[in-house]
Design a protein that fits this description.
There is one protein chain. 84% of the residues lie in helices and 0% in strands. By secondary structure, it is mostly helical.
Length: 219
């Protein structure tokens, strides 16, 4: 590697904003999580092993802590809801895997300061944001399925009254908060980081360095 290329590399590293690194690490992790969850759902639907509701109640009743018992039951209720709405969940899960792979790639390219990575990352983030909103709307009946089952089962677990945290309204708020913070919030943070002036200056410097390298390589 030439001294000029080394100098360019060091200068570009110094220009790369810390918040861009943080945002791309978070979106990379979000992408990996999306791939894992999407693949897991596809495998689960293909195997067709649906947890039995009766056994789920019995297992939950064996847990002394009412809150932990309800959470244990909720996990199975979500799986049964996914199976019940498999025709919706299968294409959504496949789309989640594909978009999450793009998110992982875009995050890695932006972290490495690849030319054109900023534009690619913004497009990928926009696609993931649209998908998150569509998927949330498409799963409305699925959410109602497991929320109602969980609340109905709560009164049967150890004879305990339904806790404030385990009402239908509370569960719906949990899903909304998850969408707002862990999906749209992560995307919003990444978009803010990519559109900032310091990030723009960083990628402009990347483009100029790439042009210099191309000129130097010309015969």
């Amino acid at each position: 590697m030439s001294k000029g290329a080394q100098d360019d590399g060091q200068r570009l590293k110094s220009l790369r904003p810390w918040f861009l690194v943080a945002a791309m690490v978070v979106t990379w992790l979000s992408g990996v999580y999306g791939v894992t969850m999407g693949c897991g759902t596809v495998v689960y639907l293909r195997e067709g092993r649906v947890p039995d509701d009766t056994f789920a109640i019995v297992d939950a009743q064996a847990i002394a802590d009412p809150s932990a018992a309800i959470d244990n039951y909720r996990t199975g209720a979500e799986l049964r809801a996914i199976a019940a709405f498999g025709k919706i969940m299968l294409p959504l899960s496949v789309a989640q895997v594909l978009l999450s792979i793009l998110l992982v790639a875009a995050s890695a390219m932006a972290l490495a300061g690849r030319p054109g990575a900023r534009s690619f990352a913004l497009q990928t983030l926009a696609a993931n944001a649209v998908f998150a909103a569509i998927a949330y709307a498409a799963k409305q009946d699925l959410r109602a399925h497991w929320v109602n089952a969980t609340v109905d089962a709560a009164s049967q677990l150890n004879g305990a009254p339904i806790l404030d945290l385990h009402t239908s309204a509370s569960w719906y708020w949990v899903t909304r908060i998850k969408l707002a913070i862990f999906e749209l919030g992560v995307i919003g943070f990444a978009v803010f980081a990519l559109l900032s002036k310091r990030t723009t200056a960083f990628f402009d410097a990347v483009a100029r360095a790439e042009e210099r390298r191309e000129r130097e390589d010309e015969p």
